[in-house]
Every structure is written in structure tokens, then in C-alpha cells.
Amino acid sequence: MMDNWTEIKIAVSAADIDRASDIANEVVPYGIYIEDYRDMEQVVEEIAHVDLIDEDLLGKDRSRAFVHIYLEPDVSPAEAVAFLSQRYEGEGIAHEIELLDCAEEDWRNNWKQYFHPLPVGKGLMIVPSWYENVDTQGRVALQIDPGLAFGTGGHETTRLCLEMCEKYMKPGDSVLDVGCGSGILGIAALLCGAKEAVGVDIDEKAVETARENAALNGVGDRYTAICGSFTEKVRGKYDIVLANIVADAILFLSEGVRDFMKPGAVYIMSGIIDTRAEEVKRGVSQYFDIIEERQENGWTCFSARQRDAAPNPRPRAAEVNPRF
Length: 324
Description:
alpha/beta; 2 domains; four-stranded antiparallel beta sheet; 28% strand
């Protein structure tokens, strides 16, 4: 392995290895390495045609399995770990994450080198909170300090979600962000015209980070961060519902999302790796009409409205909200 690459090792129950590896592929869709010793004798017999196996291999714990991910030098380990942790927690997968080629204090403190001001869509500029005097080029500046929560705007899943929100949100809308992470999606919506935003996440650290980022951007009075299951904790109905989460979670939650949508509301789904896109589309289409689909670098984002819902006329974003 080349110098300066980082290896992430994820330990899970062997029964969860298939789901865990699917989520790991969302970080590096070009390949991962899996250790799973449950069927070792059968595999060795089929491949090597021998029945003598090293005792060290025979002694491996077969109740646990491991996913290995290798990050290129320009990929932030902290962002990857935050992404994985939130996705695994959302799926109920018990896990342990270890960085093998990067000291913990380094990836916790030095990840800022990967995060720079980033223009998104037509009217937004994501600005790390430690940058000063940034030329926003006339865009709305969103200051963000993700800490260890997923969401700097640099990942394709977040950018696609922001761009879809830019297109379909109108001033005065209410926004619900399911799996809010750093709070970037809801805060961006508030800065660009939304009346109120609610972010919900099962990770207490993410919820705390989202509150801090809302205050940092001066929208803390209009941003509500909730820890827990959105179906149990959230109240009300919204004009825009955002879900930048994994494919399985979208499939599981989409039926319930309808209860939180106003007539004509738009449901924006991201975090979908391209190999799962058609499956998600079929599942979501039981309840929604897909109105737009976008892809970028192996990721897919859908926008949808409830089937048989009579949408309110929604002006084009460029006409009513040129800053977003």
C-alpha cells in the first residue's frame, strides 16, 4: 500500500457482514477487503482443493468479521469514520472502527486539511468555520464545523441533496432532515429562505454538532435538532423532507415519511450507491412519484412527491430565491 494511505478496519458480527460491507462500499465504491471465516473449510476445499488448513486460521473467531477500507491520501479519515458510524448506527449494526495507519489524535485533529471552501449549486458556499475573509463570490455563506459528524458538503451524497433542495425549496418552506449529521442540509435551507428546519438523528454527538452549527450561522432560533427516531420524536408536516442516508434506511422509512409531508411536499433522498438505485426507485415508487433523478460519481439522488397528491404550484427556485 502506498505511503500516506489510511486503512480503516471495521469489526462487526459475522451475521452483519453483508450489510456492513455494502455500507463500506459507499465510502470507497472501488473496492474493499473482507475477512469472514465462517465457511473457511468449504471455501478452501473449493478453491485450493486441500483439506489441510493452518491452525492459526482454524483458530479465528468465526462469530466476527472484518471490513477493510483503504483511503487515498486526499480523503479525510474523520469524514469517512463519521459517515460509517452514522450509517451503521442507523442500521442497528454493532461495530468497532480502528484506523491502522493513522494515529487517533491525528485523524481527530488534523482532518481540517481536507476541508476547504466549496461552492455548491448555484448560490451556496460551504465555508469551514476556521476560515476568515473568504470571497464567497456572491453566494450565501454556510459556516460549518462538522466535528465528528458526517456532513461537510464535500461528499457527493450531500452535494446532490443540497442541489435538489436548491431547486425545489421556496422561501417560507418548512424542512425536515432525517439523519441530519452536522446539520448542513437544514441550515443551508434556512440561510436560503426556509422558515424553519428540524434535524433528527440517532447520534447524540451529531445532534449536538448540528445545534452548534445552527448557532454559528445565526439560525439557532429557527433550527430544532432532535435525538431519536424521527417517527417517534418529530411532530408536524413539512414542505421539504430530506434523507441523506443509506439505501436500506430509505426503503424502510419511506412509507412513514408520508405522514410528515404537506400536500405537494417534495421528498429528497440521497446516499444511494448506484448499484442500489433501481432497487430504491422501485421500493419508493410504491408510495411516491419520482420527479427527478441525478447521479454523480456512482451516487444517486431522487426527488419525489406523494402519489396522487395534488401539488401546490411551486415557482422555480431561480425566480423566487436566486441566492440559493
